[in-house]
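Annex B, item 7. Sequence and structure tokens for protein A, then protein B.
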Amino acid sequence: MKETWISQRRTLQLSGLTVDHHISEPTELDFPGCNHHLLCLLLSDGNQQKMTRIGEQESEKSQIKGDFWICAAKTSGLWAWDSTDESLMFIIDPLFLSRTAAQVSGLDASHVELRSTISARDPHIDAIARLFQLELDTGGMGGLLYTESLMQVLVIHLLRQYCTLQPKIQHITKSFPLHRFQPVLDYIHNYLDRPLHLAELAAIVGMSQYHFCRLFKQSLGIAPYQYVLQQRMEKAKELLQQGKHNIAEISLLVGCTDQSRFARQFKKHFGVTPGALLSKKLP
């Protein structure tokens, strides 16, 4: 069913999370609930909210830029507003939330319940939302691993702050030597030409995605997505200097299906465009 009250929309689809940036026209929505958790953050000024009702909570106050609400799965709601608003909606799979809680805290999945919330403000959620918005604005310039890492940060924060039973995140205190991650590094180098997922990298060393991100950065000094991007750009530089492939081919060989995005990343990394190597070699 088409949502006629949405005039513009851009969507980022991940496993366990959908990020939906949209412009909504004035309307009234009587929502019966759905199978996913919803978190919606207002990005624009001038909201004229007449009613927000989520479960048993109710408010007739207008929202201000940066306010958000959470509607837990299978919770009904009513929204009515007279303004044209820009929002970022996070559609969260409860199974993903429960699995993450089990992996990082050992909490029984049946105990993971997100609290519905109205007109809340949280600088951490606002910052995460802005980073997701930037990814939508730049066509996913940070890459799949980056958005999956952002998703982990968002979900862990929700578990810590917005669950009815807050799980105690179990931190691995012992350090992991670099050689423990060598199978992951080898895997990355072998598959630079295709999308790499956080889950598959974490599985190589038998860790949760959360602990993998923390320990990888602790051992190598940079996040997994930064390491993969670094290796892709270094490989691209090497291929360009060999002169056997054109820029479009090299873009695909290092896992970048969008040639213009590849060029922007290359220039950001080295300070020159890939085309500059036609007449100039990088040091």
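Protein B:
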Amino acid sequence: MEIKDSKAIITGGASGLGEATARALVSSGGQVALIDLDQEKGERLASELGDAAIFCLGDVIQEKEMDAVVEKIKEAFGTFHIVVNCAGIGGSVKIVGKEGIMPLERFNRTVEVNLHGTFIVIRATAPTLMENDPNEEGERGVYINVSSIAAFDGQVGQAAYSASKGGVVSMTLTLSREFASNGIRIMTILPGIIDTPLLGELPEMVRERLGKQVPFPPRLGKPAEFASLACHIVQNPYLNGEFIRLDGGLRMGFGRK
């Protein structure tokens, strides 16, 4: 699928991986609709990107709200062809830790945002993608979902996070089969240690130590590298039903304390 003149929806689009992807798509001639809960950052980015971008305040776990936001985007753009699900939350909590037993709410919230939120957006957007005119390959649209290497290499305290991201991976092939006859592709990216605002809150010494764990290049990943992969996925019609680790060869081990 050509990026030029295409329209994209990016959840979590106000910062981090979503922001980098929005910038890359716009620089290649596309238009983007940014969905995020951070209205200030979202509106600022949309303003910077000019006529090629709009911002919509929205919570991916609210089914009816997402239906309304997607309809608003459809009215503004006419249609859309690309959906990138970057919205998500992290965090690490042991089931039995210093503060006692982890509240079930903590587990449910992580799964709700990372897994349910991804599915809710797919559910809200699929009918529009199905209505698109197919290109010469018969392609009508592409989904890029975001998981994490924690889906396979989860660390202590990441039971909820790993479960939620593993669910996103598990949907990939199933959804690609479901939407195959509609000309819609499904791909999932599993980022490793990427230099997003979340990691930016860590001390520099910790950031350097994390970067040195990566085989090559021995550094944190860049959001622009995620965006570059996302753009390639859009442009390569034979990528479908698969997940790709973006981690510099990192395989997280187990360090007993």
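Comment on protein B: The radius of gyration is 18 Å.
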